[in-house]
């Protein structure tokens, strides 16, 4: 039986031992079969994926917190704002939240619409209304 990824990649123990003797270091991981450069690339890509997932989780909590806090601040129920309920006051608050999610947090209009229980066009119109009120065309 041959050892881990480095041994297999290098062609056996004799090559690994000769590398050790020369003082040359090669990145290795027993789970990955390939050259040192390849191993480093795979590990880097995996670390980037984990970092993306962590940012996504933080963003998720941030989105939920923004919706909760803005509803509380306005004195409306989160279920009404996120449930697609119609009514002037609820629509105004939904538009304010949509603007914040889209412009300040960077959430797409489609994802904002899903979060708030309305169509993408409703979010687009709400953002456009807020832009025109504030003169941000």
List the SSEs and their pairings.
Elements: H1 5-10, H2 13-22, H3 36-74, H4 78-82, H5 88-105, H6 109-116, H7 120-134
Short structural summary:
With 137 residues, this protein is mainly alpha-helical. The protein has seven helices and no strands.
What is the CATH level 1 assignment of the domain at 58-134? Mainly Alpha
Structural class: mainly alpha
CATH fold topology of the domain at 58-134: Chromosomal Replication Initiator Protein Dnaa, Chain: A
What is the annotated CATH architecture of the domain at 58-134?
A: Orthogonal Bundle
Helical run tally:
7
User: Largest sheet at a glance?
Assistant: none
Please give the radius of gyration in angstroms: 26 Å
Instruction: Please state the overall shape, judged from the principal axes of the Cα atoms.
Output: rod-shaped
Q: What sequence of helices (H) and strands (E) makes up the elements? A: HHHHHHH
**Separation of termini?**
69 Å
Oligomer: single chain
Residue share in β-strands: under 5%
Helix content percent band: over 70%
CATH homologous superfamily classification of the domain at 58-134: DnaA protein, C-terminal DNA-binding domain
Mean pLDDT over the residues: 78
Low-pLDDT segments, ≥5 res? none
Q: How many strands in all?
A: 0
